[in-house]
Design goal:
Length: 194
């Protein structure tokens, strides 16, 4: 596990403990090997489909409609499996958030998430420079990999409450490895105090 300079500059001690607790939660839950294994499944289905289509088209005079149909079905299945893997990944993020809340308190975990969200909301250029498709996105507490941060960002309890009320796009959510911050904050706020 590593902590970026941006996070060190931005987070208070209890927020940093919450983020580290979150990441340790991933380790305790064995999320890396589980998600790595699950992440291979859509690729297997996709490339099986592509291979079946190529085999079906190998004989130009008598293409195999059955092989082509099987290939198309497998490609569709690969996208469905990818959505299921992303859904499972989002669930694992909620579990890791619970570990962060146990480590430093739910308020610290909520503030840390809100600060990260606020940084990206205030810095659209950070969004533009973060790769949209990256195998590394799942390794971060937030689904963006830009490691810069602003040490002057602070978050008030009212800002956290406002963030919890934000509407989120269902399409953005199902295509993401991480749940939207407003949903994560709502789940954390519903936790009973330790």
């Amino acid at each position: 596990m590593a902590v970026t300079t941006g996070l060190l500059n931005t987070a208070s001690r209890d927020e940093l403990e919450a983020v580290i607790g979150h990441e340790l939660g991933h380790h305790i839950n064995k999320d890396m090997p589980i998600m790595t294994a699950l992440g291979i499944l859509p690729s297997i289905a996709f490339f099986t489909g592509v291979a079946a289509i190529h085999l079906g088209l190998a004989d130009r005079e008598r293409p195999s409609i059955l092989a082509i149909a099987y290939g198309v079905v497998m490609i569709v299945v690969s996208f469905i499996v990818q959505l299921l893997v992303l859904s499972f990944s989002r669930l694992r993020e909620y579990y890791a958030d619970m570990h962060g809340a146990r480590a430093a308190g739910k308020d610290a975990m909520m503030r840390a998430l809100a600060k990260i969200h606020k940084y990206y909301a205030q810095n659209p250029e950070a969004l533009a420079t973060s790769p949209k498709i990256s195998g590394f996105k799942a390794l971060f507490i937030y689904a963006l990999i830009n490691a810069a941060a602003n040490p002057l960002i602070d978050i008030t309890p009212e800002e956290v409450r406002q963030l919890m009320r934000l509407q989120t796009s269902w399409l953005d959510e199902i295509l993401s490895s991480h749940p939207p911050i407003p949903k994560r904050l709502k789940v954390l706020s519903a936790l009973a105090a330790p």
